[in-house]
Design a protein that fits this description.
single chain, alpha+beta, 5-stranded antiparallel sheet, 7 helices, 18% strand
Length: 164
């Protein structure tokens, strides 16, 4: 009788151990973290370059990013910045990946200051460029901020959205 009880206890302990192991392993196998599913900044750049013509724009560095939008490059996981090659054109493209997604609102405010300055610059001087600035695209998705001023801003936006 005692051996039967010992076997039952051993069997129950084994079953509990298997159930605990399955529960632990199934917790690890859930959906991927949202950041894992997000595209890289390079992938976003490639998709946007395929969707829109950036030949009239020049790729810029962190110094220019800081100058235009007052964004510290140390707070970023990466960025893409293109601006017009001419100061009489308003074309800009910025895709910014922040280390901390809670900073997106502040980054958008900084970009809105740039938009306001560009509106003043182009309003009476270059109405067609003012129209582009007026119809800019500024949005965020998680740690990403997207900003475009261009005749092809909608195509850029669609490429950005399609990458997620």
């Amino acid at each position: 009788m005692r051996t039967s009880w010992k076997r039952t206890r051993a069997l129950l302990a084994s079953i509990l151990a298997v159930v605990a192991a399955i529960a632990l392993l199934s917790g690890c196998g859930g959906k991927a973290d949202k950041n894992d599913a997000a595209p890289s900044i390079e992938e976003l750049g490639t998709k946007i370059e395929q969707a829109a013509d950036l030949k009239e724009m020049k790729q810029r560095d962190g110094e220019k990013l800081q100058k235009l939008y007052k964004i510290d490059p140390d707070n970023l996981d990466g960025f893409i910045l293109y601006t017009s090659t001419s100061n009489v054109r308003a074309d800009e493209l910025a895709v910014i990946k922040l280390k901390d997604a809670r900073q997106t609102e502040q980054v958008q405010k900084n970009i809105e200051q740039r938009i306001a300055a560009q509106k003043i610059k182009f309003k009476d001087y270059r109405p067609e460029e003012y129209f582009l600035v007026e119809n800019h695209v500024l949005k965020s998705k998680g740690p990403f901020v997207f900003f475009a001023v261009s005749k092809e801003a909608k195509q850029m936006e669609q490429a950005f959205d399609g990458a997620f």
